[in-house]
Every structure is written in structure tokens, then in C-alpha cells.
Amino acid sequence: MKEFNGISASPGIAIGRVLLYLEDSMAVPKYTIEKISIEKEIKRYQEAIEKATADLTELKARLSREMEEENSRILDSHLLMLSDSMFTEQVYQRMKSEMVNIEAALKSVIEDLIDKLNASNDVYLKERSVDIYDVAKRVINHLMFRERVSLADISSEVIIVSQNLMPSDTLIMNKRMVKGIALDSGGRTSHTAILAKSFEIPAVLGLRELTKHINTNDLIIVDGHHGKVIINPDAETKNLYDKMLLDYHKRESELLNMNKLAAETRDGKLIKLNANIEIPEEVDSVLVHGADGIGLYRSEFLFMQGGSVPAEEEQFEAYKMVLEAMDGKPVTIRTLDVGGDKFIPSINSLAENNPLLGWRAIRFCIEHKDFFKIQLRALLRSSVFGNLKIMFPMISGVEELEKALAILEETKEELRSENIDFIEKIPVGIMIEVPSAAMTSDILAKKVDFFSIGTNDLIQYTIAVDRGNEKIAGLYEPFHPGVLRLIRMVIDNAHAQGLSVSMCGEMAGDIYSSVILLGLGLDVYSMSSISIPEIKRIIRSVSMTDAEELVGTIMSMKSFGDIDQYVKNWMEEKFDIIKY
Ligand code: PEP
Ligand code: MG
Fold this sequence. Notes:
Strand order of the largest sheet: 1-8-7-3-4-5-6-2
Shape: globular
Helix content: 40-55%
Structural class: alpha/beta
CATH class of the largest domain: Alpha Beta
Number of domains: 3
CATH superfamily of the largest domain: Phosphoenolpyruvate-binding domains
Number of helices: 23
Bound molecules: phosphoenolpyruvate, magnesium ion
CATH topology of the largest domain: TIM Barrel
CATH architecture of the largest domain: Alpha-Beta Barrel
Radius of gyration: 25 Å
Largest sheet: 8 strands, mixed
């Protein structure tokens, strides 16, 4: 039995067998070859192409049987690439001119090709690079005898252990079969953590070297409450966790009984508790957990599914479905927030030195106006099917906001001229997640209908701590006085302008932050659906007077360590905070 400690990223306990999913990369050895080896290298390449072609043909047949026509068409283009004689000739030429092994030659040709595509301004042309990478990795895996497992194809219950999972991996995996996730890297607010929580999969991240100590089929316990994993537990530990798992499920169903009750403090202040979603299928869970609405629909995940940019019609259908399912309850859909760890090669495949400070979100959309307008058209058209609010991400100042609003207005004008219905006075808000936006929130508040504080990014940018980097996770501190002051400033500036303020970062679903946010005057909390019942329980058992008193005390403290300790004691004294 071995125990590892990491970061608790998604609650719950999972006990099961490991599927070790090691990174599938373009990393290949490069070595010089003699003239005499050329024929041998060509033969290896041809064999790898044959195997890759056989994989794809089999996969295509399966997708056709399952009526997945679009995905099956994507595979046609992959097959075509494999049989392209000009491409093959280029790889052979590269090998001969540089006298290197065939996988190194293939990699070098692929990188040149992808650079050319990336240099183009055409979003749809850039999409091709995803396919090219996919095909090349498949051939490289065969050349190097690496086994390739697709997370979408998992057909028995497993716990995934990996160095890292991209949000897109988490999105496509077979969620019914993945019972837990344990990763070497990642932080509590990385998007992989957020998705695991949304899909109610217990997860521990930031385990550093776990993958070096584990094998496929080992028995593992993932304890998402305490950020711990145990490999090959002894019988006593296993029994203890079996019991904890039962207690957890029992408590979850007890909390669900509060479904219909309002989140009202003991002295009568009514708070709205909304849910965050990434994909439309989560709406069932939103309703089961008693959310008042959807406070954040991260629309970029629609762009990650399927490997291609969704057309206006596809986007419209997704937004309409969510609005109709929510049946008049408010739904805030955030426009595309690509970039950072939400790397979507089909949209923005340019490698950046510093993607977190790079061409993200609204910055990218403003520069690609025609592309942005497709999403805005889909949103506006869907507005007649429910209670929609539109939200812009990553606004850093008033110029950016004015540009985004102008593009929205232009899109409205186009729809009017085409006689297409939409809600004229659709509420428009912004995320406050960049410190400069928080500092100018008094100015921004005059131009929008609502704010939603994105603490995941706001904390990252305020303290200069990458939210996904496990090595500095200890510095990522929501109770840093700098962060708390910014939150207070945003709420006060919004209220002075008569605006309501929501928070949709992970802090909104954190038990220990819940009373502080109340005392700071937050109006709406938005979080993963599973966190709603517990936050509701806390809000219902506290008064505004208590909350304001707590805030009064902590705002005069100097360090996050002092605040953390004080809040922890205060909360644990007042509430029965269950530690499994
Ligand atoms: C945030 O930054 O707090 C947020 C909600 O947006 P995301 O996590 O998608 O960056
Ligand atoms: Mg953000």
C-alpha cells in the first residue's frame, strides 16, 4: 500500500482499477542513419501506414454503424492523408536529405506543414492542423510500438491515472465508465478539475510523480475530499473507504431534500444560487440540484467537441436546448473563452510563449469579427426560447467592452434587416476576472447590465500564480487580502450603479468562502451543480449580521495565512462541516 497527497479537485470517493493513460505525444527520438538503412526505414514507414490505415478503416466502420456520420467523414480525410503519395514522397526526401530516422523526418515535415497552416488567417484552414496532428501521432505510435487508447472508447469501469489531461480529453472520455481521475499535474481551478466536478467524477490533481509508481490494473482509492490517493490499499483501509463512500452518498441524498427551499439567510436576505455548465447535457444535474438558473455556460466546450468549429445552426440548437430545458429560469451564456488552458487547435492553434496572458477570449473574438458574429447570431436567435443573458469573458477595460458591444449591435442590426426575431433588450454582462477590470469596475458598471466575478482568473492574475501549476498551488490563495479587496471593490462599484453581482469562479462553490462572500454583499453565486446543496445549507443557517461581522474582522488582517486560519476556525465552530 502506498499513499500520495495532491490537490483535492473534485469531491467524492472512487475505488477501482487503474487505467494508466500516458501522454500521447509527438516526441520521437532523432538519430542519423547510414545509406544502407534507407530501405529498412521506408519499410517501417510503410508498415506503420498500413497499420494506421487498418485502425482508421475499422473505426470508420464502427462509427458508420453507430450513425456518427460527421465523425466518420473526418476519418475519410485522415485516410486520404495516409494515402497521399506526395506527402509520403516529402517524408522520404526529408529522411534522405537529412539522413535521419523516419519518425524524425515525418515529424519535421508535419511541423513545417502546421507552421504554414498556422500562418494563415483562415480559421477553417487552421482546423486542418488538428487532423494532421492526429494522423501523424497515429503513425508515430505504430512506428514506436506505442499503444494508443482513446478515452472515448473505454468500455469498462476504470480510474484514469495520467501525467496530465487536457480539458478536451476530459470532455470526450466515456464518463459513465470513468469513476475517478488522478493526475500528476494540475490545480484546483484548472479546467480539467472544473470538468471533473461538473461530471461528478472524484478527482485528485497535482500528485507530481504518481504515474511513475503505478500500473494499469492496480487497485486505487481516489479520495477527492482530502486530495489523497492510495495504491493497492490493505483490507482495513479498503473497508474504511467503502464505509466512507456509503456515508457520502447518504449525506448527498439528504442534502438533495433541500432542493425546493430558497437560499435565504436567517435574517431574510435572499441569495440566488446558480449552476455553471460546460455542455448542454449537464442541465439535468442543474435541475436535480435545485439551481435557480445557469450563471455560466462555458460555450467554448461546444467548440472542443467534435474537433471542428460548430456552425451557427449547431450553436443555435445547443443554446436553444439549454434555454428550453431551463424553462424560463435565467441562463447566462458566456461567449467563446478560448486560450490559456482551453487550447482549441481548430480555432487558435498558434503556439504562444505565454498563453495565459495571450490572445485569449474576447481579444481573439474582437480580432475575428466575422467568426464572433456567428456565435452572436446563434445566441440572439436563441434568445426568444428562454431567459438568456449574454456575457463577455476577459474584458480588461472599457475600450475592449465598447468594441464587443459594437459588434453585438452590428449583429443585431443584421438580424433586424433579415427579419429574424430576437430579444431586443437582452441583458449583457461581463466577467470581472482581470485586475484592471476590477479596478475600473466603476466605469464598466455604467455600460453593462451585470457583472460576474471570475475568481479563477482574477486570483491567477492578481497574485501572478498560474491556476493550473501544482508547484505553486500553495500561493493560489482566495483569501489573499489583495483578492478580497478587489472583490469588495467590484461589488461596491456595481451596487453603487444598481447592478447585481454574481460570482462564477470556483470560490463561489467553496464552503469556507461562502459566508465571507455573503458579508461582502454578493447577490448571486454560480458553481458546479454538486456544490449547490451544501452552500445552500450554510447560507440558510447564517445571518447577514454574522457574515458582515466576519468580513469586518478579516478585512483588517494582514496575511492570507491569518485569514485562512481565522475563517477555518470560525466556520468549523459554527457549522457542522463534514470531513469524511
Ligand atoms: C473564472 O475565471 O473564474 C471563470 C469562471 O472562468 P474560467 O474558469 O472558464 O476561466
Ligand atoms: Mg476565466
